[in-house]
Design a protein that fits this description.
By secondary structure, this protein is α/β, with parallel strands linked by helices. Helix content is about 35%, strand content about 25%. It has 7 helices and 10 strands. A hairpin with a 2-residue loop joins strand 3 and strand 4.
Amino acid sequence: MLSKRLTFFLLVLCGAKAYAQPQAMEAHRLLAAFTLNFARFSEWPARVYASNHAPFRVCVMGEESLAHAFQPLTKKSIGSHPIEVQTSVWLERPQNCQLIFVQRTEREALGRLFAAIADLPVLTIGEMPGFTDTGGVINLFTEHERMVFEVDLSNARRANIKLSSRLLKLAEHVKE
């Protein structure tokens, strides 16, 4: 099963072409696919789950169309944890999110977000210049008409998130 996931992940990372001006929904679906695979190649402390089958919460900060593109993830799971996609929970209870995806339209909220989740085991994924410099763990961007990503390991360690060595090998840039 893991090799099927890795194969899919590699296909998405290496073979997917994401052009600078794709249709918004297709671009959002691609972001959701990357996010799912990042989650599958990451590890959270056991204490983040109330039980072995507690939900894995993906919180989306962004436009409604982005949140809509993430809804198919609710048919998936991370290990034994079924995925729930939520859009406004991060404002009220960010500690209930295991992963927060931040759309570039939410840049002004980054300071509040990172203050609210400081030292919490939350994987943050964004799609804007400087996202990892402000505290994010993974940043997606387009380079040479391909979707690529960078990782900040110090931000991952601060969040107590372990990233797979396979994931790190696929990153365009890894900051220590």
